[in-house]
Specification:
The chain has about 190 residues and is an all-alpha fold. The protein is built from 9 helices and no strands.
Length: about 190
């Protein structure tokens, strides 16, 4: 028993040191920074997560769709990524690691095809509208008039909030629907 405890301690110490090692003094990088195929610096560019999600859906319209083997590899990662949304408890490093896994599951050709799309917020809004989500017309923040929505029922207020998020105020409504669509696609493979 003592030997087992000692061995477990060594394994845990090794894991801890491995997690802490690497690039001392080097600036932290994110998956978005290290991605060689997906650029997030052009005007209106979607964040890496949404580029991967919308791009994965768009690959279905090409001769490079996600394969069944890739779907099996990516499904749990997308579900984990979906779980990080709205939890507020996930570390940016955790999200970056999940995004890197998704990029690693795609072929270089698939990543290049997604990158060539130069996906923007307008593309996300067009997709949301095609799915029947109301995207509003602007920032998604409402008119800003005091008392706005106070006469609405709780259900109507929740609907309006979801529409605002889908319109790009925070983008979380459309982003969540987008990730749910990717998960549905992968489950169908």
């Amino acid at each position: 028993m003592k030997r087992m405890t000692w061995f477990a301690g060594i394994v845990l110490m090794s894991l801890a040191l491995t997690g802490c090692s690497g690039g001392q003094g080097a600036p932290p990088t994110s998956a978005a920074d290290s991605s060689s195929a997906l650029d997030t610096s052009y005007e209106g560019a979607l964040p890496l997560r949404n580029q991967l999600a919308l791009g994965t859906l768009r690959l279905e319209e090409t001769d490079q769709p996600v394969t069944a083997a890739q779907a099996g590899e990516m499904l749990l990662v997308w579900q984990a990524l979906r779980g990080t949304m709205g939890s507020g408890a996930s570390a940016p490093a955790e999200v970056d690691a999940l995004l890197a896994q998704l990029e690693g599951a795609l072929t270089a050709e698939q990543l290049a095809a997604i990158g060539a799309l130069h996906l923007t917020q307008s593309d996300l809004q067009a997709w949301a509208q095609s799915q029947g989500l109301s995207t509003g017309s602007g920032s998604g923040m409402g008119s800003g008039q005091q008392g706005e929505g106070q006469s609405l029922s709780p259900e109507a207020r929740a609907t309006r909030q979801a529409e605002r998020e889908a319109a790009g105020g925070t983008g979380s409504g459309a982003s969540q629907a987008l990730i749910d669509a990717v998960i549905g696609l992968l489950q169908s493979k």
